[in-house]
Write a structure and sequence with these properties.
Blueprint: H1 3-18, H2 23-33, H3 41-58, H4 60-75, H5 80-89, H6 91-114, H7 117-120, H8 124-140, H9 156-168, H10 176-186, H11 191-212, H12 214-219, H13 225-251, H14 259-273
Helix pairs in contact: 1-2, 1-3, 1-13, 2-8, 3-11, 3-13, 4-6, 6-9, 6-11, 8-14, 9-10, 9-11, 10-11
């Protein structure tokens, strides 16, 4: 992989990580088109880290609010009544609790799939099938209601369910953002909260994947640092713009607009892969 290819793949990652069309699926397809035969797992991880920075910067106010609320919670822990009050009323604490709950099944599924990573990231046919599934999921959001509950009325059980969906999105072709936002909508969240929860939930998931893949990133001598850095920077800059666009689209209930694209691309991948 040369510098130009790294920037191209970084841009692809930045656009597709947040738009609900599966970044991992696009990376598999573009690596195939560029003639990169071996799965570049270290590079895939590095460009995901670039988009992680985009999420942190975009939702920095939410993250700061969560940290401050958790600090207040720790300070009142000896007072059971005050603790219960904060747990029930503070939106940021509720969000933190649901992120922890959702991260558990994501971590379990991520570890289960870790040994299959190279196989998953080398199958164009698999990407074709899963892109069709993503398209169907997105299309079904067309019938979700405009109104929904906020994070304080979202149950831990529902948070766990969204975490399971996020864990399954490790499979290339299943859009993490699309499937988790759709899951939140199907479970009754309002549009704004579904998007916020989806992206905040991605922070520990992407961080965990980055830590697990750090050894591969360091040991992959075939990729120069400049190549990895260029891809990471490109994914972060483009990812921020894509994230802002998707939040706007979700707020208007138009997530299903991406369904035809996923269906067409999935069908093309099936043709190429056979």
């Amino acid at each position: 992989m040369n510098l130009t290819e790294a920037v191209v793949l970084g841009v692809v990652q930045g656009v597709t990580e947040f738009l609900p069309v599966s970044s991992s699926g696009h990376l598999v397809l573009f690596q195939h088109l560029l003639g990169i035969k071996e799965p570049m797992l270290a590079f895939d991880i590095s460009v995901h880290i670039g988009t992680l920075f985009a999420v942190v910067i975009y939702f920095r106010k939410d993250i700061i609010g969560i940290v401050r609320s958790l600090s207040r919670l720790i300070s009142v822990l000896p007072d059971k009544k005050a603790t219960a009050g904060l747990m029930a009323q503070d939106r940021d604490i509720r969000m933190a609790l649901l992120i922890v709950a959702g991260s558990v099944p994501t971590a379990v599924l991520g570890l289960m799939f870790k040994g299959m990573a190279e196989t998953l990231f080398s199958s164009v046919t698999l990407v074709g099938v899963t892109l069709l599934i993503t398209g169907l999921i997105l299309w079904c959001t067309k019938w979700t209601g405009e109104n929904g509950v906020g994070i304080r009325r979202f149950s831990v059980k529902s948070g766990l369910a969204v975490g399971v969906v996020q864990g399954l999105a490790i499979i290339p072709g299943i859009s993490r953002s699309g499937s988790t936002i759709a899951a939140g909508l199907f479970l009754g969240l309002n549009r704004e909260t579904a998007a916020r929860f989806s992206f905040l939930l991605s922070i520990p998931a992407i961080s965990g994947a980055g830590l697990l893949g750090a050894r591969d990133l360091i040991g992959q001598a075939s990729l120069p640092f400049t190549v990895i850095a260029a891809g990471t920077l490109a994914s972060g800059i483009v990812g921020y713009a894509s994230l802002k666009l998707l939040v706007w689209i979700v707020s208007r209930g138009r997530l299903y607009f991406f369904a035809p694209y996923c269906a067409i691309l999935g069908a093309m991948a099936l043709v190429v892969g056979t």
